[in-house]
């Protein structure tokens, strides 16, 4: 393990992270991690743990991590959508060339409803954007 550990460790949770201060400056040369806060990226809240008061440096590091984490999650969302497009294309190819009639019967209605729902949302959102452009 590297001797240059970061000052903070962020244990990712569903809505953000538990924030720990990393300490290696003890006699036993152990790594101690002391939880100092919980960060919620959905609402931007940073809650100190226990009776702690977070320094401006602590808050700056946590806010920086939160901004970076939001960017990572946004990029993942777009990547997931691009993968969904690939899956739709692969599904079309499967339906056309490999699917057995009973397999198509098992998924057709569910897939058609999901695609109809998606199409409705995309058409409405596109119309909203076009309307905003013509108004602006």
Number of helices: 2
Calculate the terminal CA-CA distance, rounded to whole Å. 56 Å
Structural class: alpha+beta
Write out the strand line-up for the largest beta sheet, numbering strands in chain order.
Answer: 1-2-3-4
Number of strand segments: 4
Range of helix content: 55-70%
Q: What does the main sheet amount to? A: 4 strands, antiparallel
- Please, what is the average pLDDT? 93
Give the radius of gyration: 24 Å
Report on the architecture of this protein.
The chain is of the alpha+beta class and 136 residues long. It has a domain at 1-72. 57% of the residues lie in helices and 19% in strands. The protein has a four-stranded antiparallel beta sheet with strand order 1-2-3-4, covered by helices on one side. The protein is elongated, with a radius of gyration of 24 Å. The model has no long low-confidence stretch (mean pLDDT 93).
Topology overview:
Blueprint: E1 8-13, E2 16-23, E3 32-40, E4 46-48, H1 56-97, H2 101-135
Antiparallel strand pairs: 1-2, 2-3, 3-4
Notable characteristics:
136 residues; alpha+beta; four-stranded antiparallel sheet; 4 strands; 57% helix; elongated
